[in-house]
Structure formats: C-alpha cells, structure tokens
Amino acid sequence: YLYSLEDFYVRESTMWLDVLEAFAQNSANIMPVLNEKGDYLGYYELNDVIGLFNESPFFNEAGGVLVVEKGINDYSFSEISQIVESNNGKLLGAFVSKMKN
C-alpha cells in the first residue's frame, strides 16, 4: 500500500496552480493535504479548487486572449507585459502551453 500512496498528496503550502496540476496528474477529484511534518490535515476537492480559479480576475473579467507564439528565449514575461501595458492594455494572467527554445 505504501507505493500506491506515494506522491498522492499536496502540502498545505502548495500553490493553487500546482494543486490543480496534482489533480490532473493523478486523475483525481480529491487530494489529501499534508503539513510539512507529513501529518494529514484534510483534503481539497477538485470542484472547490476550480471555484477558486473562477473567482480570480484572470478567468472572470471581460477581456480578450492574446496568443504569443515565440520561443521562450525570444521574449521575457516582463517584455510581453510592457508591450501590452504600453498599448493601454491590462494583463490579468498568463497561461503557457508549450515551451520551446
């Protein structure tokens, strides 16, 4: 049983995007939460985590989608932000789907 539970948890300090990734990697809808000592604290439900993202400006504010198809070394995130903001735009979030050089 030890191996079936290995890495099937998140820490209480885990960032929300990493929690969402853990759900996806484990094809789960419930994720145990442990403290730094390894003690069980409770669990996250996938629907609750998705609800948190729905409340963020990145997902619920009206706006457009900008697709930038460049290599990771072509522009830094701060350069892309400066381009958007210098054109009176606001950058509420970013999603990176593929990273190529």
TrEMBL record:
Superkingdom in the source lineage = Bacteria
What is this protein's name? Acetoin utilization protein acuB
> What organism is recorded for this protein?
Oceanospirillum sediminis
